[in-house]
Amino acid sequence: MGDTRRRRSKALASGTGVAVAILAALISLGLSLSPIRDKMAAAPSAPLVEPKATNWVELARQALDRAELTQIKVGFKAGVLSVSGDVSELEQRDEAGAIVRQAVLADPSHVGTVLALENRITVNGTDLADAPEAAALMGKSPGAKACQTAYDTLLDGRVINFASGSAVLADESKPLLDALADVARRCETYRVELGGHTDARGDATANQALSERRAQSVADYLVSKSVPASLLGVTGYGETQPRDARGSAEADARNRRIEFKIVEGVQD
């Protein structure tokens, strides 16, 4: 065998030996790591930490304190964040409402949680009777459920009033109607039925006609506030769907109402 061939054979043998040694080391390392891998696989995964829910009362309270409006009280119930108290100037009342509104809108998690803002602050003891604000809190593209929730929130415990026995809207209901109009404009892709209801006093046929006229008066007012007429349907139910059948004056007041209902089948 020539010198060249001997050198090639020696190099080949040496390389094979190194490869075998490396393979053996890897096998040994794999075996030594397998218990660690098994323990890691068996170990329970760390639980997901849910983001902490915003304390809306505390958020509003801190914003008001920074503005030195420490006398203003804050409440949160059924999705409505309210401020109350008494101030000496209308500007203070408006400032408190604006501060809370800005603080809530700055937190994206408010959508679907804070359904309305209500300013119940009096000025020198005088109640200005503003309706809650819902439209601004609904997000950019509210769905049908969000729109219905906004209507329900505004009408929860509040009714649209009329002059006795007529379809003439009472002036004190204008703030509530304005808030409902804001929602209707935001929910511009959904038709809403305005359902008129009366109490059971008087003639049923007359009540049926009155309920429809009252619903139409509400529709006319909303149209005057730039709500497209095509979004509004009017139905009179008269005395056929009472909320409270006790027959008392309080029950009659609850039964006289206009309900807002998103029409089924619209595009969400």
From TrEMBL:
PROSITE patterns: OMPA_2. Pfam families: OmpA. It comes from Candidatus Phycosocius bacilliformis. PANTHER family: LIPOPROTEIN YIAD-RELATED, STATOR ELEMENT OF FLAGELLAR MOTOR COMPLEX. The lineage of its organism: Bacteria, Pseudomonadati, Pseudomonadota, Alphaproteobacteria, Caulobacterales. Keywords: Cell outer membrane, Membrane, Transmembrane, Transmembrane helix. It is found in: Cell outer membrane. The chain crosses the membrane at residues 12-33. This is Peptidoglycan-binding protein ArfA. It comes from the Bacteria. GO terms for cellular component: cell outer membrane. Residues 149-266 form the OmpA-like domain.
